Amino acid sequence: xxxxxxxxxQLLAQLDHAPEFDLAIIGGGATGLGVAVxxxxxxxxxxxxxxxxxxxxxxxxxxxxxxGGVRYLAQGHLPLVWEAxxxxxxxxxxxxxxxxxxxxVMPAYRRTDQLVYGLGLKLYDWLAGPAxxxxxxxxxxxxxxxxxPGVRVSNLVGGVEYWDAQFDDARLALALARTAASQGxxxxxxxxxxxxxxxYPAGRIKGLSCLDTETGQERSLKVRCVVNATGVWIDxxxxxxxxxxxxxxxxxxxxxxxxxxxxxxxVDESFWPGSSALLVPHTQDxxxxxxxxxxxxxxLGTTDTPRPQVDWEPQALESEIEQILQEAAKYLVKVPLRxxxxxxxxxxxxLARTAAKAPEKGATHNVSREHSVKVAANGLVSVxxxxxxxxxxxxxDVMQSIRKAQLLSLTSEDVxxxxxxxxxxxxxxxxxxxxxxxxxxxxxxxxxxxxGTDASLLSTLPGAERWIAPQLSEAMVRFAxxxxxxxxxEDVLARRNxxxxxxxxxxxxxxxxxxxxxxxxxxxxxxLAPFEALAKTYQLPQQAASN
Length: 547
What we know:
Elements: H1 8-17, E1 21-26, H2 30-41, E2 46-49, E3 65-66, H3 70-74, H4 78-94, E4 99-108, H5 111-128, E5 137-139, H6 141-147, E6 158-167, H7 169-182, E7 186-188, E8 193-198, E9 205-211, E10 218-228, H8 234-238, E11 257-268, E12 277-280, E13 289-294, E14 297-301, E15 305-306, H9 318-329, E16 343-352, E17 371-375, E18 380-385, H10 391-404, H11 455-458, E19 467-469, E20 472-473, H12 474-483, H13 489-496, H14 499-502, H15 504-519, H16 528-537, H17 541-544
Parallel strand pairs: 1-2, 1-10, 2-7, 4-12, 10-18
Antiparallel strand pairs: 3-6, 4-6, 5-6, 8-9, 9-10, 11-14, 11-15, 11-16, 12-13, 13-14, 17-18, 19-20
Helix pairs in contact: 2-7, 2-10, 15-16
């Protein structure tokens, strides 16, 4: 593959010279980017517009797991688990540089728990069928300690090991964006949609207006079909047909989705050594606790808290922080304190209200993660719910809904089953169980490997050997600006590189140098001051006071 330059001047020129697009996608998260790839592979003329940056919202704030969903298995959502396990296999095959197998262990403190967990996970294996990554095993006390060297041993009787997968969510989003672009799609970030244009008197959507936030220039586009893939902001787009929308953080609760907040705390890997992840399926309040090794740190989480409003930068509640720390203290030998947290971040899950089985108010951990697609009489196609693992199946469902509504002429074929994502090597990096060895865990992959086939190009850029921070070189910043649509310091340090999500203080320290490099690569201001203000919100209060 020859990397496509993402020069914004050229992208805007393409936008201005296009007489009409077959499909316009609003939203550059997992769902919107997946739809862009599917539509572009079909040969449609596609434009995708993202208000901020690709994966700025929910899609960069996951627990970094590609999984069938052990919790959904316990809830009886077998069709969702079955679909997710198959999509997990497609992701491992199509993006092996970004998605890797990972062993998980459930510690058992009662023998009956070990047997129940083991039976449930054997069903998980059975549902995966040929797509299973490794066998589920009952572990003895000694084997559990070898797999989980950081786990508390008091009353421990054993454990259950099973396999799922881990990924870098924001970089997978970039791989989708670049895959869509390589297939002819036009993608623009920092380009919010400001209105939907309808024909008179039928009321059918025939176009949209958008705003370039860097120049303040507004444009109108002619389109045949519009997909609303904005997650928790889905109703703000639908409201454009009736009145001017508000993008404030005080937006009222949407009608189509039920936002649920998930919070993660990041601590040093010394709190959870080894390559296996911890899963506690039932905490005191009925949620799930994870301790997941990721890029040299450990993610602790997550919460599942209903939120009455949506925000681009949702903030962790004090009760959520304390809840995670208290639950972690029950299972980790080295107990993390507030002062040990290097970054804290929250994301809003766009749970489909139509799929909800829980009451309108209250806990959302029992609400289904299934997605739904709605085609309005005016032709607006809205997709809601779902999760990262099933993004490809969601995109295929959107395209089939468009076909059935006769908005565009399409075949019923599923066209992306074997579409390799940008950077994927020709030879699959994964080691199959059939080969007689365990899969290679995520921890074994380096920072350079996340660039896949672009690693050689990266090594030729200026500053390839000059490191600004751990796992961040000058060349990576330049690569982000030239080939990965990065326009601001936040784009680089939050999503092209994950330093903000791993260590907010280190991100603050690196930000001025990143801004200086960016200013030599792009014409727009790198937005250093806004990033510095943002990074402080990723620190716990007593940490922020010291900066």
